Amino acid sequence: MRVTIRFYEELNFFLKKDLRKQTIHTEAAPGQTVKDLIESFRVPHVEVDLVLVDGNSVDFSYQLQGGDRISVYPVFERLDISELTHLRPQPLRKPRFIADVHLGTLARRLRILGFYTEYHNDAEDEYLAARSAEQGLILLTRDRQLLMRKIVDRGLYVKATQPFEQVRELVARLDLYSKLHPFSRCVVCNGLLRDLQPGTEQWRQSKQQVPEGVLKWCTVYRRCESCGKVYWKGSHLKKLDRLLAQLEKDRREKCQQEKQVY
Description:
Helix content: 25-40%
Number of domains: 3
Shape: elongated
Radius of gyration: 22 Å
Largest sheet: 5 strands, mixed
């Protein structure tokens, strides 16, 4: 049976070039679900927030009928469509993540920015999918097939290849600018950081981690409440300052663009 389908905005990234930004006429098998049709075009279902069939919102289990006109929309950043979409009982954009084995640097930078981000450099795909589903974590990956696993409900395909740009992409797509909380999480274990006051019992237990040269000039420290690692302001701050400055610039430009639209 014949149906038509069109993918909107950034979902076109996943399509072959000759299929982008146009209505696609295609064949659907009897009993085929709209989810199966969407993923037959290599578009992961977790990248989709809304599906309309002849103007009506449907869920992924909808079985296609001949002549259906299907419109597929990506994750919405700011628009509340909770009264319209039937794809998820809760919003996708909960800023708690799990990153696959190829995104270790991105995971560390997300932790530096204050986001809960699970990462294991030996994690198998089955574990990542199951953990994402069990804990409601957004699965970050550059593996489309991993995102197409049925169990995965929350996930994003990371398009950029460089960590700096990956962070910018993720923050922009999920509109996380207001949720940045730099230096609130441990880069090593993901635990929360707390102020460490020199002269306290905790300081005496942790002081050996700090080089003698640092002790001479630094008076502000933070300590991970999970693994006990001590942090202080070092040269790595320059890289973070550059990233934060770029994110603030991105935020201002996005706000300006929205003002022009409205």
